[in-house]
Amino acid sequence: MTNRIAQLRKARGLSQAELADRLEVTRQTIISLENGRYNASLLLAHKIARFFDLTIEEVFLFEEDTR
Amino acid sequence: MTNRIAQLRKARGLSQAELADRLEVTRQTIISLENGRYNASLLLAHKIARFFDLTIEEVFLFEEDTR
DNA sequence: CCGATATGTAAAGTGCGCTTTACATTTGTA
DNA sequence: TACAAATGTAAAGCGCACTTTACATATCGG
């Protein structure tokens, strides 16, 4: 699983700290998600998707077995 | 957060045990999700949505502040 | 060069998602 | 009514999602 959080955040001209504030999570959470340390919870994934006006599937990329 | 897992499962004529097998989780996990004991992880939510050929947002209902 | 802003790492603590095992209750049907 | 299948409850254990605090490194404008 990868995600487009860093890309979407930069496109909005936001720092990690600003995004963290807007999402009501810590900066550590944003860093960890952007750097792939762990996956978001379903609720946080939803909150992030709504913030960027996208669906969860548009922000979080679930690479499928393409076989 | 609520979800339509029980409804979708019954529409497919599956028991909880059968669905659990197909999703490669335990029956307890299905029971807990259907009865709202806790939320699915993002990965499991994705797996469930794919199983039913729906998006995460179609299976898991995030009631928004509609104000 | 210097200070501010942004990004990163480290590490410990808490609660939840999921498992495992075991047993109880409900429901359908012969 | 009796048995089987389906659903539910209980409880302990593990790892991950997220927090908190502190410090390190990089980048950049004045």
Task: Provide an overview of this structure.
- Two copies of one chain form a homodimer.
- The first copy, chain A, is mainly α.
- Chain A is 55% helix and 6% strand.
- Chain A has five helices and two strands; from the N terminus they run E-H-H-H-H-H-E.
- Chain A has a two-stranded antiparallel sheet with strand order 1-2.
- In chain A, helix 2 packs across helix 3 (27-34).
- The first copy, chain A, is globular.
- In chain A, 22% of the residues are buried.
- At the A-B interface, helix 4 of A face helix 4 of B.
- Chain A binds a DNA duplex (30 and 30 nucleotides) through helix 3.
Largest sheet of chain A: 2 strands, antiparallel
**CA gyration radius of chain A, whole angstroms:** 12 Å
Q: Give the integer mean of the pLDDT values of chain A.
A: 94
Weakly predicted, low-confidence segments of chain A: none
Number of continuous helical runs of chain A: 5
Q: Total strand count of chain A, please?
A: 2
> Which structural class matches the secondary elements of chain A?
mainly alpha
In percent, how much strand structure appears in the residues of chain A?
Answer: 5-15%
Oligomeric state of the chains in view: homodimer
- Give the end-to-end Cα distance of chain A, rounded to a whole number of Å: 17 Å
Tell me which protein chains meet in the greatest interface and how many residues each side has: A-B, 14 and 14 residues
Helix content of chain A: 55-70%
SSE topology:
The structure is a homodimer of 67-residue chains.
Chain A: E1 2-3, H1 5-11, H2 16-23, H3 27-34, H4 42-51, H5 56-59, E2 60-61
Antiparallel strand pairs in A: 1-2
Helix pairs in contact in A: 2-3
The structure holds a DNA duplex (30 and 30 nucleotides).
